[in-house]
């Protein structure tokens, strides 16, 4: 009752109605958010319940926030910690969705005209050995316990056997092949930020490396993210004049380079679209703008001279070819 949710573009913001403060900003979607729902799980339980196979899974009771977007995702957030706990991908943009009381069923309407309905099945638990023995001793008064069946639809199905240790006899058996553990990829800080859709943090981490190749690679990935320029705008917005200096320095150096022109020119357009009103206020930014202007003008003049030279050489080449009979 004391929390409100607002949506704009690909972001959702949660506000405290009483104090008016911003509680959290959820920007995990790549395109416009179309629907938001607040649900409370019906069969959620606090704590963790140990199971016979050594796996344990905890269900936290509490409210959930569901968001649907044009990018085809329905994502679930936990309102206690504002963390993303689940996401589902649909084949078409999600226009609207709704849940039954208790979140046992989810109906999703898509732009293609399809309606997808999902149910959360309730599986019975098998008899626990200890409880079965107690029930046998106590007669009909013993209460049977059920445990979920281990099937391929469960995440624990793919983790089975990982904690099993081979005996000495099995270690000496050459017929048993032991697969080596896969090494986890050592991602850079900007790669981790990009995977979490923290575009501004990814650009800041790449600038700290002081490697123009890394910065241009991150900027190219931001241009391609989503396809609507939202990621690039989120990474470049709300920066001071000193924060724009490294970006402008790279643009001044590589805007006329044929190898990086495909990336640097759209970045320059995005910077001027966001900070056109700042021109004339900051001397540092104005200096970089003039350097970029001079760099572009010199490249334009060089292209014009090359075009003139090409026009002078073409008649000579044609005449040479005509004389040689080619």
Descriptive account of the structure:
With 326 residues, this protein is an alpha+beta fold. It contains nine helices and twelve strands. It has helices at 129-138, 168-172, 189-195, 199-208, 212-224, 230-236, 241-254, 261-275, 283-324; strands at 3-8, 11-16, 22-26, 33-40, 48-50, 56-58, 63-69, 73-78, 83-89, 94-99, 105-110, 115-119. Strands 4-7-8-9 form a four-stranded antiparallel β-sheet, with no helix packed on it. A three-stranded antiparallel β-sheet has the order 1-2-3, with no helix packed on it. A three-stranded antiparallel β-sheet has the order 10-11-12, with no helix packed on it. A hairpin with a 5-residue loop joins strand 5 (48-50) and strand 6 (56-58). Helix 3 (189-195) runs antiparallel to helix 4 (199-208) and helix 7 runs antiparallel to helix 8 (261-275). The longest helix has 42 residues, at 283-324. The radius of gyration is 30 Å and the shape is extended. Mean pLDDT is 79; it is low at 44-59 and 130-134.
> H/E element string?
EEEEEEEEEEEEHHHHHHHHH
Number of strand segments: 12
Span between termini: 85 Å
Query: Quaternary arrangement of the chains shown?
Result: single chain
Instruction: Figure out the total of helices.
Output: 9
Quickly give the structural class: alpha+beta
Rg measurement, Å: 30 Å
Which term fits the overall shape? extended
Q: List unreliable stretches of 5+ residues.
A: 44-59, 130-134
Mean pLDDT: 79
Helix content: 25-40%
What percent of residues are in strands? 15-25%
Largest sheet: 4 strands, antiparallel
What strand order characterises the main sheet? 4-7-8-9
